[in-house]
């Protein structure tokens, strides 16, 4: 291309944030750019990226056509370490683990249309990433870069030797050489980074560009290390005669928690069954369906309490009718007025037999003003995969409202919660109910020992118990958890099970990830 043509071409280039209407164009470009449409991001990945972190998604437009794009996420890189995989740090491309309070920008994809390579499109995308890094005052940009020429040398060079030769300019790699020319430095060669990347033999180079304009924000960085105070209500299920009585009982606990400056209060699973003491329905399946008619009252009550008392409320659970199906759902009422919902994923035999509950199909991690929270409702905490998925997506605190008809079930909840805390290096909060409603047909008695649990280590807890109440008494459990200590424990604990997982031997894959193995190029 002649110089005058190049100048005219560059004038027509538009570097901007990606929009939803660009997705189809980016998908088409990616299929060409990767050479294999099976390894490119799909629409659902781009939609998730745009909904979560639109500022981090950039494209280059030329005469109405998308000719380059890149995707990024903000993380605290220390939470993942130098031995992470793409799946772990990018949430398989869905970036639900995006941390707006993080310190690092992580690149998960860069693609240039084949017809426009060697025209500085990639350089412009890298510069756009630098602008994002500066805009958000982030410490650095990192990514795992492919080494697509390595397979040609693998019979005589290790991956580390190959990378060393590329750095010395004795060998050429189209990706690594380009990154080095754009001022990125090698930190480490990572094995098992990118599944199905045959050209790189699943190796990647961990690269970093340090932001010279970064200024440590003392207030922001240290805010995260302040303890989070949590209240778990061991709620007494006693007879009432109106919704107003139920509301008064709930407000009592919210008020008491607010007075001691708790950040989060947790109520038990299905504690709204207390309303049946005056509704008088005798058929179990009709009992829970009758409660759906009080869902609006329930939501109005806890929305008001959360805002009025300035506390985040996990309001146990209630029942939700959706189309012709009944779901069991936990609700999180933020003190800023936002409301989140988590459907129960695993339905117990009792719920299936007597209530006809359907399972939800999506596990959420919610951003709050005191860390990321995921709700494992009752029976869900018995399944380690659910907790692992939540932590991989950034959860700091797992909350388990539960209901138990006997001591055995209560102990299952307690011991599984403690196991989840240890194996995932995460805080777990449980809240159950006590008492009984003898006049309500088919209503079990309640058994509970509620608590707040942590990993077991010197800086956290010598027995894994932050706070725990006596069994089967009406009370509140109050405890402080420190998210900064948790972060340090994940990095430098006596044991680091979250970091030491053998992802080369086993991985948890969601249905959406299994549908297509996602391989991306950065």
Explain what the structure shows:
With 522 residues, the chain is an alpha/beta fold. It has 2 domains: 3-219, Aminopeptidase (3-Layer(aba) Sandwich); 224-490, Nitrilase/N-carbamoyl-D-aminoacid amidohydrolase. Helix content is 32%, strand content 24%. The chain has helices at residues 3-11, 23-34, 43-52, 86-90, 121-135, 159-167, 174-181, 218-223, 243-259, 276-279, 284-291, 295-308, 349-355, 384-392, 407-424, 483-492, 511-515, and strands spanning 13-17, 58-62, 65-75, 104-112, 140-145, 185-190, 204-210, 227-237, 264-266, 312-322, 325-333, 339-343, 357-358, 366-368, 371-375, 397-401, 427-431, 433-435, 451-453, 465-468, 475-482. A hairpin with a 2-residue loop joins strand 14 (366-368) and strand 15 (371-375). The longest helix is centred in the last third of the chain and has 18 residues, at 407-424. The chain is elongated and about 85 Å long. The two termini are 27 Å apart. Mean pLDDT is 90; it is low at 220-225 and 513-522.
> CATH superfamily assignment of the largest domain?
Carbon-nitrogen hydrolase
Number of strands: 21
The level of helicity is 25-40%
Quick one: biggest sheet? 8 strands, mixed
Query: Average pLDDT, to the nearest integer?
Result: 90
CATH fold node name of the largest domain? Nitrilase/N-carbamoyl-D-aminoacid amidohydrolase
Q: Main traits of this protein?
A:
disordered C terminus, C-N_Hydrolase_sf, alpha/beta, 7-stranded mixed sheet, 32% helix, Carbon-nitrogen hydrolase, 17 helices, hydrolase activity, Nitrilase/N-carbamoyl-D-aminoacid amidohydrolase, elongated, Aminopeptidase, hydrolase, 522 residues, C-N_Hydrolase, 8-stranded mixed sheet, 21 strands, 2 domains
């Amino acid at each position: 291309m002649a110089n005058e043509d190049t100048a005219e071409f560059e004038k027509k280039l538009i570097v901007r944030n990606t929009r939803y209407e660009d997705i189809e164009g980016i998908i088409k470009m990616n299929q060409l750019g990767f050479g294999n449409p099976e390894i490119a991001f799909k629409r659902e990945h781009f939609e998730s990226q745009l909904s979560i972190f639109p500022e981090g998604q950039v494209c280059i437009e030329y005469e109405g056509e998308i000719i380059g794009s890149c995707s990024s996420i903000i993380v605290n890189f220390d939470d993942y370490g130098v031995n992470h995989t793409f799946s772990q740090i990018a949430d398989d491309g869905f970036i639900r683990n995006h941390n707006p309070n993080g310190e690092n920008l992580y690149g998960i994809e860069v693609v240039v249309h084949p017809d426009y390579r060697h025209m500085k499109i990639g350089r412009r995308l890298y510069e756009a990433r630098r602008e994002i890094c500066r805009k958000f005052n982030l410490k650095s940009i990192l990514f795992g870069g492919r080494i697509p020429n390595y397979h040609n040398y693998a019979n005589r060079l290790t991956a580390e030797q190959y990378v060393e030769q590329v750095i010395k300019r004795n060998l050429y790699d189209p990706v690594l050489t380009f990154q080095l020319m754009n001022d990125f430095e090698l930190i480490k060669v990572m094995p098992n980074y990118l599944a199905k990347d045959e050209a790189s033999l699943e190796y990647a180079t961990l690269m970093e560009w340090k932001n010279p304009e970064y200024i440590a924000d003392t207030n922001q960085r240290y805010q995260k290390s302040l303890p989070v105070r949590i209240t778990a209500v061991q709620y007494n299920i006693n007879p009432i005669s109106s919704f107003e009585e139920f509301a008064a009982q709930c407000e009592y606990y919210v008020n008491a928690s607010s007075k001691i400056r708790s950040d989060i209060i947790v109520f038990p699973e299905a504690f709204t069954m207390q309303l049946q003491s005056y509704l008088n329905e005798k058929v179990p399946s009709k009992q829970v369906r009758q409660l759906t008619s009080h869902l609006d009252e329930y939501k109005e009550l806890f929305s008001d309490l959360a805002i009025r008392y300035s506390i985040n409320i996990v309001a146990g659970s209630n029942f939700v009718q959706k189309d012709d199906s009944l779901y069991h759902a936990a609700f999180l009422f933020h003190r800023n007025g936002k409301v989140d919902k988590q459907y129960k994923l695993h339905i117990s035999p009792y719920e299936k037999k007597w209530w006809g509950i359907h399972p939800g199909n999506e596990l959420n991690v919610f951003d709050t003003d005191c860390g990321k929270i995921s709700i494992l409702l009752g029976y869900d905490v018995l399944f380690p995969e659910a907790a692992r998925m939540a932590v991989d997506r950034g959860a700091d605190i797992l909350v388990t409202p539960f209901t138990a008809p006997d001591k055995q079930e209560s102990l299952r909840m307690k011991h599984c919660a403690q196991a989840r805390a240890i194996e995932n290096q995460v805080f777990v909060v449980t809240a159950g109910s006590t008492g009984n409603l003898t006049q309500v047909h088919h209503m079990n008695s309640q058994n509970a020992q509620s608590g707040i649990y942590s990993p077991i280590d010197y800086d956290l807890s010598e027995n894994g118990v932050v706070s725990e109440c006596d069994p089967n008494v009406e009370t509140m459990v109050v405890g402080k958890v420190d998210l900064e200590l948790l972060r340090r424990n994940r990095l430098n604990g006596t044991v680091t099970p979250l970091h030491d997982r053998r992802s080369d031997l086993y991985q948890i894959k969601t249905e959406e990830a299994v549908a297509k193995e996602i391989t991306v190029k950065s």
